[in-house]
Design goal:
The chain is an alpha+beta fold and about 160 residues long. The chain is built from 3 helices and 10 strands, in the order αββββαβαβββββ.
Length: about 160
């Protein structure tokens, strides 16, 4: 059943013609419109190509969004279901070891993989590596090219 839900989620993200609503134990409603997935008051879009962290962020900004900020277990579970390595909006490029989100707030909730972050000055950008563990964050070189996930906050 989980594989089917993952397949439906991936197809819905990449196919604008598939109108779906999926209900799960940790979400209220997950729906898809124009390649954007709605979850907990935000819209999310996964890229179909790979870029550096900064280029990925620029793409999100051009869409009126930014790289995803993860502040809850629900958001972590939401992105984990994609089973992809994705840039998220987390960086310590301003001050080594002080991880901040793209909106300038400090990271308060974290889901670092075991032994992470470990990259020092060479790995200043956050990615989600969605293996079988909830603890899936990794610090990575910002120049590496990866897929990314944009988040557009919806006004209440």
């Amino acid at each position: 059943a989980l594989c089917f839900l993952l397949l439906v989620a991936v197809l819905a993200v990449f196919s604008p013609r598939v109108p779906l609503c999926v209900h799960s134990s940790y979400t209220s409603t997950l729906s898809y419109q124009q390649n954007w997935a709605a979850f907990n008051g935000s819209l999310f879009q996964v890229s179909s190509e790979k870029k550096s962290w900064q280029q990925s962020r620029q793409d999100c900004l051009q869409k009126g969004a930014d790289l995803m900020i993860i502040n809850s277990r629900g958001e972590q579970n939401f992105v984990n279901q994609l089973k992809m390595c994705l840039w998220i909006g987390l960086t310590d490029s301003e001050t080594e070891g002080t991880w901040k989100w793209v909106d300038g707030t400090r990271m308060t909730t974290s889901y670092w993989n075991s032994g992470e972050p470990n990259g020092g000055r060479n790995e200043n950008c956050g990615e989600i590596k969605t293996y079988d563990s909830e603890k899936s964050w990794n610090d990575e070189s910002c120049s590496n090219e990866k897929f990314w996930i944009c988040e557009k906050r919806v006004s209440p």
